[in-house]
Design goal:
The structure holds two protein chains of two kinds. Chain A is built from 15 helices and eleven strands. By secondary structure, chain A is an alpha+beta fold. In chain B, the strands form two sheets. A six-stranded mixed beta sheet of chain B has the order 1-2-6-3-5-4, with helices on both faces. Chain B has a five-stranded mixed beta sheet with strand order 7-11-8-10-9, with helices on both faces. Classes of the chains: A alpha+beta, B alpha+beta.
């Protein structure tokens, strides 16, 4: 019998609305990974407590249940495991990775982090200090500052993607243990949440173990209201040039809003981004800005289609004396992908490269796990990634141009430069 | 304690008549194959005027060779869904390509071609000059890079470890295509290289293919002894830096042994106790580094009481004697003098008392469990096999592993006492400047 493909997941509702997403690991893999995804992302921060969701997730994986931070670190060391949180606007993600034969113990650790984080006062103080330093870093580093400014310029202040989730010094200063406990109690719930399991454990055993760890733990939970992501991105040209003295490199961002992941035109836009600069080494921005012109070390693009819309951005970093030239090239490439169909030969090359790279994603448990997490995160069909190559192959050059033209409005692009 | 099951690969090892060392580690179930070529050339082989040459050559090896015109190397790999990259260290340079297993011939063809026949055309060197500059400029925006560069510049006066692998800006501006080509021709070649292939392949077929492609290459590639010996530190060397940044940073370093020294296992244990990182044998799905280690001594001494937002140590395994460094980033409002005193206190404490038995036991657990999954995936397997091949003789990884599990407290204490002389150290302090961002 053929082994199940990691590209197809299986979903089932366990208890209280918690969805178990099962995925086979790569053949012969020695590791497993489990991730809880719940409606506790940074978009759910209360207005005056920005940074709360981030602190919650970071502290939940630091100390939980019977383990304070040192005991949990020792527990993970003894398992040869790691426990991490992943900040994102829509969801909280807590993830444990470790050896295959310790999967029950790993699940226990994750359950404690999800159900019984300690939020010890000392840990909170340390985490707040670290978060304030991170805020300073995002403000003073040209690259992170450029990314933050880009989102602020693109999305109105009422939109969840307007803010980065790290809060401000004042908002983080206001956060107390009680706020964390309240937020965790209302957002780390089974409704709208998934437990993604990439393990070779038999389905029945896995289901039993998940039930054993989670059943009955959520006695009085309420469904979580989704934040309002309906505000339209700004539809005017924005040009932000921030003079940051004594920097050796200027960071440039040029882009626009993008449709949500669920939009029907997503595969076309995805390929458009791969052509523009998303496909490593083959994309036009890398080829034109770095390989042909020798103007910059990094030049690429990124399409982020998320739950409530997204953005499409071209990025580059270069010396101040070359910044104007690079900016011009970024503008030319955005115009080209919007105004002209991608030549068939170029599209075929990029498309097959993109499809071929799926096999590399099957190399390790953590990489195939990313696929299942994405399926769970966006509520995609179970066989989404198995069918992905066919979806890409069905895209015509005219559809890419249409999708790009629809996304890139020359009257609504956002430019950010940061540096000297 | 027995070594963990399946932790260490025992690659097939052979050498071609032209000197190329080959390591093969097949994994019948792997959907991918990873090809790594490691050259024993890095910034340790450079001299003033050609600093950064190893790194620049690394860039040029993607810019064309007889069989692969400019751009074709990237295209050949990426078009079949593969990934490729390279990096340059003080001691070595490594190139890797991972592809779906049925395309293994692509990276083999590339590596055989560029091992001795990279084009290094003057026009491409000139174009790449700004790319290399831009890479360095991007790094210079980071206070951590500036601190580390200054640290090595101050700690070493003779040995080439005193410059970063990116090279001096003036050399990046002045290095000629001819000098770059000469550097490549001298150091690159089968005699100075290790080819590592891991993942999904049939060994007999691959062996034949490797002999066919690589045996005809000329036996070139020097691995000259680096004769520069750094004199002992005669006192305390200090530098104060300032620039854009977040909170003050400090790096405090002592001279430290090379990987070949008998003390190397004790240095790894010392580093794990102070900073928390088990470095060569760390658990994790990627390279296994964690940012915080709440059980480490420096975390407990600096982060717990609110002096710092992060604190760690680093003993990086190197071919020549290097540094044992303490790093800390101050919490807001904490003066670096206090941080330095706290770091000194921790250095003196372990030198005076050594580690506790509980600490030693914790390190052993971390090493044993961290090593257990260290070879998952062909890319990571290729990295580990090649990395250890650069650091020492065959069997180094297994030997270090066994030794790490047996290092006694007395050896750690003895090493700490020898290294952490408060009168012989290097201290770099970075203070952020207040600034107004205009926009």
């Amino acid at each position: 019998m053929a082994e199940p493909s990691p590209l197809v997941v299986e979903r089932e509702e366990i208890d209280d609305g918690l969805t178990l997403v099962r995925q086979a690991p790569p053949s012969g893999s020695p590791s497993v990974q489990f991730t809880y995804i719940g409606p506790g992302g940074t978009a759910y921060d209360p207005g005056d407590l920005a940074g709360l969701a981030l602190l919650d997730a970071e502290l939940a994986v630091l100390a939980a249940g019977p383990w304070d931070r040192r005991a949990l670190a020792r527990r993970l060391d003894s398992l040869g495991a790691t426990l991490n949180s992943q900040p994102s606007p829509e969801c909280a993600e807590l993830s444990v990775w470790g050896p295959r034969d310790r999967w029950r113990e790993l699940l226990e650790v994750l359950a404690e982090a999800v159900l019984r984080p300690r939020f010890d006062a000392k840990d909170l103080e340390i985490a707040k200090r670290q978060l304030v330093e991170r805020q300073l870093r995002e403000a003073t580093q040209p690259d992170s500052r450029a990314d933050t400014e880009f989102l602020e310029a693109l999305f109105p202040s009422s939109h969840p993607y307007h803010r980065s989730g790290i809060g401000t010094r004042a908002s983080v200063g206001r956060i107390r243990q009680a706020d964390l406990r309240r937020f965790h109690g209302t957002h780390y719930v089974p409704g709208g949440a998934a437990l993604v399991a990439t393990s070779g454990a038999p389905a029945a055993a896995l289901r039993d173990e998940v039930r054993r760890r989670f059943r009955g733990e959520w006695a009085h939970w309420q469904p979580v209201s989704r934040p309002d992501g309906s505000a339209s991105p700004r539809r005017t040209v924005s040009d932000r040039r921030l003079a940051m003295p004594d920097r050796t490199q200027v960071e440039i961002r040029l882009g626009c809003s993008a449709p949500a992941r669920s939009a029907p035109g997503y595969p076309a836009l995805f390929l458009g981004d791969e052509v523009l600069g998303g496909r490593p080494l083959l994309g036009r921005l890398f080829q034109h800005v770095r390989e042909r012109s020798g103007l910059a070390y990094h030049s690429s693009s990124e399409l982020e289609s998320m739950a409530w819309g997204g953005f499409w951005v071209a990025r580059a970093g270069t010396g101040p004396e070359r910044a104007a030239q690079v900016e011009r090239l970024l503008r030319e490439e955005l115009a080209a992908i919007r105004e002209r169909p991608v030549p068939t030969a170029e599209l075929d090359r990029i498309r097959e490269s993109s499809i071929g790279s799926i096999q590399l994603g099957l190399e390790t448990t953590s990489r195939v796990h990313d696929v299942a997490v994405e399926v769970a995160y966006y509520g995609l069909p179970e066989d989404y990634y198995r069918e992905w190559p066919a979806r890409l192959r069905a895209v015509r050059p005219s559809e890419i141009q249409e999708a790009a033209a629809s996304a890139i409005d020359p009257e609504a692009t956002v430019l950010v430069t940061t540096g000297t | 304690m027995a070594p963990p099951v399946g932790s260490f690969l025992r690659p097939e090892r052979f050498q071609l008549p032209n000197g190329l060392t080959v390591l093969l580690a097949p994994d019948a179930e792997s959907p991918t194959a990873s090809v790594w070529v490691w050259y024993r050339v890095g910034s340790k082989n450079e001299w003033l005027g050609v600093t950064g040459a190893s790194h620049w050559v690394e860039h040029m090896l993607f810019q064309g060779s007889p069989r692969f015109a400019k751009g074709e190397i990237d295209r050949a790999v990426v078009e079949v869904g593969g990934i490729l990259n390279a990096f340059t260290d003080n001691d070595f340079t490594a190139y890797f390509t991972t592809v779906p297993r049925e395309h293994l011939e692509v990276p083999l063809g590339i590596e055989a071609d560029r091992m001795t026949r990279a084009t290094i055309a003057p026009k491409e060197v000139e174009r790449e000059r700004t790319v290399v500059r831009s890479e360095r400029e991007g790094n210079e925006n980071w206070p951590e890079f500036r601190v580390e560069e200054e640290l090595y510049a101050l700690a070493f006066t003779e040995h080439p470890y005193r410059w970063d692998a990116l090279g001096y800006p003036s050399d990046i501006l002045s290095l000629t295509p001819e000098a770059l080509r000469a550097y490549y021709q001298r150091f690159y070649g089968p005699r100075n290289a290790v080819l590592v292939v891991t993942g999904g392949f049939e060994p007999a077929t691959l062996r034949r293919d490797i002999r066919r492609r690589f045996s005809r290459l000329p036996s070139t590639g020097e691995d000259p002894e680096v004769h520069r010996v750094e004199p002992p530190l005669g006192g305390i060397r200090r530098a104060d830096l300032a620039g854009p940044g977040t909170t003050p940073l400090i790096a405090m370093a002592y001279r430290a042994p090379a990987i070949s020294a008998a003390e190397a296992p004790a240095a790894l244990v010392l580093d794990a106790i102070l900073g928390g990182e088990t470095r060569l044998f760390a658990a994790g799905p990627m390279w296994g580094r964690r940012s915080d280690h709440p059980t480490s001594r420096l975390y407990r001494a600096l982060v717990d009481p609110g002096l710092a937002v992060r604190a760690t140590s680093e003993w990086r395994p190197r071919l020549h004697p290097g540094l044992f460094t303490f790093y800390a980033q101050a919490a807001e409002g904490v003066a670096l003098e206090r941080i330095e005193q706290a770091l000194l206190k921790e250095a003196q404490r372990i030198a005076a008392d050594g580690p506790t038995s509980a600490e030693l036991q914790e390190v052993r657990v971390k090493v044993r469990e961290g090593a257990a999954l260290s070879y998952e995936g062909s890319t990571r397997a290729g990295f580990r096999l090649g990395y250890f091949a650069m650091l020492g003789p065959p069997g180094l990884e297994r030997r270090l592993y066994r030794q790490l599990l047996a290092v006694p407290a007395s050896a750690v204490k003895q090493l700490a006492r020898r290294l952490f002389d408060p009168r012989r150290r290097v201290v770099i302090r970075f203070e952020p400047v207040a600034e107004a961002v205009r926009g």
